[in-house]
Amino acid sequence: MFVVVILFVFLAWWRMGRLRQKKAGETPTKPETNDEPERETPARPRLAAATVSAAYITFAVWTFFAWYRAHKPLSKYRWGGDGWMGVTTYAGGADKCGHAWATMALARLGTYILTSVGGYRRLPSSLFSAAMSEVLFTGVEVRDGFFYEFSFSDLTGDSVGMVLAVLLDNFPRLRELFAYRVEYFPSRSYARKIAGTSPCPFGSCSRWNIAEDYSGQTYLAALHLGGIQAIRNKIGKVSRFVDVAVEFDSRNYRPTPDADIAKPIRQNLFLGLSVNAQGIFDTIFENRTSTAAKRARTITHGLFEVFNLPLGSVSVLGTSRSGPVRPLRLPAPIGTSM
Fold first, then answer.
1. DSSP state string for 100-145
2. How far apart are CA 264 and CA 252, in angstroms?
3. Whole-model pTM?
């Protein structure tokens, strides 16, 4: 599945690049818009195709080491069973938020590469990139059925992320007002996996598997105060540095904690304030004309479009619900049963 996706990405955009070269001598039929500004560098469609392909290849290699290398296949294909957002589900719903975020982030990265490097128009680029991201994560679910399970709820999260990517890529006003980000700080359980001090022997506890460290992740639907004219007029530039966010996280689900640090599982939903690092770095670099400053602004703008600063949010109002303790259960020694 991954090989098919990667080849399709590369060949499709290689072909489009050749068609673009054939039309290079034609006069544009419409003026440039603010959403597609005049380019300072020549379009490189083949480089764009190679870069997008490299991103997909990197992801495919990482999934092998993180999810499959140390995990034995199931005896038969498994469908569903991990639930949705219930308190006793696999990751308390944080995995659904993670699927939506990952699909959105990969799709938006592809759109940026295809438009800024390849010189393609935004709308078709965003549709193509979102579709390819959805195909990739559908492939992940298909493969998961052989090792874990095919999750319909995960696939729903992927589809939400795909739609969100298309909307954010094509509606500048929506980007001015809204962002979907993840805030991450490694959990104690995952830190043990990194250090090699956890007794967990399973593939799901791989030190490569940072994506499954849901106990260290918080997902934010952030409203940019700086995008609201009335607020911007009242408090000035400070409005660019603070967001109001609805935030969700789950704790003590995944990674499965070692017995000595196991605590009750817990879901948290709260309304809070978050540092808008994107607004901070945009302000720092916006009046600088050097090439280094422009590149720094591009990198930080894109990075903090989807990531929140670690420990960069605070809860104002919130609610939570808890479940039982989930301590690590090691396999029984040979000749015994659990």
1. HHHHHHHHHHHHHHHHHTS---HHHHHHHHHHHHHHHHHHHHHHHH
2. 7
3. 0.85
